[in-house]
């Protein structure tokens, strides 16, 4: 019963954040899903639900997408996918979580200290590659993109829409890679189906919240998401 309540809470909160920021679901859900499911199950459930959210939101946001940036990060992600899959199949999961959590926490602190970087085409490709590797290895594409877009002061509308469009591609490819090379299980699909109504509720609430946020509140929320994600990943790996 407690597990079910925790699952409902995780999916609802993460869906609200995804709709309001363009990033929240995988960042918030994955570390906590590790508390409930086996690693493979947690990653695949996250991929399925994140893909469902992107399919729902992207058609409504297509006019705000930066297609030039989207093209570059998508191409870059293709190079990162096999690296991430290799890491997932070979590297100890706890080691991977420690490394990623430290990267997220340190990068977030630097952003909060107003460290800014210039956006370039080459960096778009690199960030896409890192996101691809992160997605297939841990089920989270968000941190590299979020840190990069936040560091380049990308407008919140463009940030949110471009990220969601990218997820539509990267989560589809990552899910196919997982099912093909790591297999799947009934509990993954049953749990995902159970979560769909929760996602719909969360998206409605998230859209309501998004319309009432200014840029400053938007960035504060992003910093909170990153800090919680990095801390929870680190706690899970050391616990």
TrEMBL record:
Domain of life assignment: Bacteria
Membrane spanning residue stretches: 42-61, 73-89, 95-113, 125-150, 162-181, 188-210, 216-235
Cell membrane listed as a keyword: yes
Membrane topology: Multi-pass membrane protein
Main location: membrane
The entry's keywords: Cell membrane, Membrane, Transmembrane, Transmembrane helix, Transport
Any one Pfam family match given in the protein's UniProt record, by short name: TauE
Cellular localisation: Cell membrane
Gene Ontology cellular component annotations, sorted alphabetically: plasma membrane
Similarity comment: family membership: Belongs to the 4-toluene sulfonate uptake permease (TSUP) (TC 2.A.102) family.
Protein's UniProt name: Probable membrane transporter protein
């Amino acid at each position: 019963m407690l597990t079910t309540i925790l699952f409902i809470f995780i999916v609802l909160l993460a869906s609200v954040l995804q709709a309001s920021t363009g990033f929240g679901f995988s960042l918030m859900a994955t570390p906590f899903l590790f508390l409930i499911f086996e690693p493979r199950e947690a990653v695949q459930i996250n991929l399925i639900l994140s893909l469902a959210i992107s399919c729902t939101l992207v058609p409504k946001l297509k006019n705000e997408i930066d297609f030039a940036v989207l093209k570059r990060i998508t191409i870059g992600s293709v190079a990162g996918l096999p690296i991430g899959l290799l890491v997932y199949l070979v590297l100890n999961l706890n080691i991977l979580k420690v490394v990623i959590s430290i990267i997220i926490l340190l990068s977030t602190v630097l952003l909060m200290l107003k460290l800014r970087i210039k956006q370039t085409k080459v960096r778009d490709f690199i960030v896409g590659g890192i996101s691809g590797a992160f997605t297939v290895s841990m089920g989270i594409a968000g941190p590299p993109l979020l840190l990069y877009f936040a560091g380049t002061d990308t407008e919140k509308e463009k940030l949110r829409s471009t990220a969601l469009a990218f997820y539509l591609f990267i989560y589809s490819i990552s899910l196919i890679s997982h099912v093909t090379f790591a297999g799947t299980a009934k509990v993954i699909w049953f749990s995902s189906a159970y979560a769909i109504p929760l996602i719909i509720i969360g998206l409605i609430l998230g859209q309501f919240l998004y319309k009432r946020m200014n840029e400053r509140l938007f960035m504060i929320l992003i910093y909170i998401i990153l800090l919680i994600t990095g801390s929870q990943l680190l706690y899970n790996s050391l616990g």
